[in-house]
## 1
Amino acid sequence: MDLMAHKTGNIAIETFSRGKNSGINSTIADYFVIHCFYENKEHFYVFKTEILKEFINKNNFRKVFGGDKDEYGNFTTKIVLLPLKEILRNEIYVKNYIIDI
């Protein structure tokens, strides 16, 4: 769940954590669901995993570190930030469920 999408305009997707692939890079699921809050609504974006991976890999989206910290105070999780406007503009999702909150 991305709790900051409504402020940043980006959806954060985990790719690597604690020395190994994680999140989108480790899933074996056919579909990947992103749950975020945006414009006072709760959104559930459903993607075909392979299409989302290809979209991430062919674009140079910003990558940051976050999540838990190691014993030296360094963040352990690598995250790619997908601009929500790019997801909507390219319509790469299979379905978008929106719930008013």
## 2
Amino acid sequence: MSKSTKQKDRIVLSIKRCIESKFLESDWTELAYLTNGKDIIYKHQRLLRSLSFGDQDYGDCIFDVIEKLLARDPGNLQIIIDFIGLQEWLKENHPQDFEELYGHTQPLLDTTEEIAIANSFELNQHIVRIRRAVESDPELAVGSTKELLESVLKTILEGFGEKPGKDDMPKLLKRTQKVLNLNPSEVDLNMKGAEIIIKILNSIGQVVIGVNELRNIYGTGHGQVHKSGITPDYARLVAGTGATIAMFLMENFEMQKQKDTGASS
């Protein structure tokens, strides 16, 4: 079992325990609206009934619903964590789990080789860790954002059967845009708003290259830390834009692979 799979299982287990300890039916209603999961929650055969009658299968129902909400949208993970106040609950009720999930001072993003990204759920886990480091260690957040983007680019290329090799970030991005049909030079100029789309696609390249250059000035990488005084505000900007681009590229990759799988079946 991979590290990322173990982490996901631990988070889901913690979410289940937290919900089981304090949720009322009204809490499930609010969560249904927050996660676009009204059908998953309201139409579940046992969830609300088990809660109402205190049945023994309530915990299993929670697992089932949470997994379905995450399968629908990996972004629901952070919504659920924030809504239930998982960090505070763990700190008070399960300090050992709190220490494992939140107590580390450095995100697990030290080198590109250590980052395993197979889907948007795993990507979201890494993004959460980076954002958590912004205030306490902005240099680390910048360095980790660069490593994350590089890992996403390599993951996508490998998914299309290409070897990333030792290409630098600009080359990796150009190759990735090509396999995802996001190359600015290949946009249909007859399409309405083509010039705007080209500008947006070009801006992706500018951000990726900019993050890479900032890492060399401010961030961490290859065992080095450059304590040069970047503020959390700018680190937050780097982490936010980098995360948006990483998620955009990964979601496009997953959609293309689904199309390819459907076409071959």
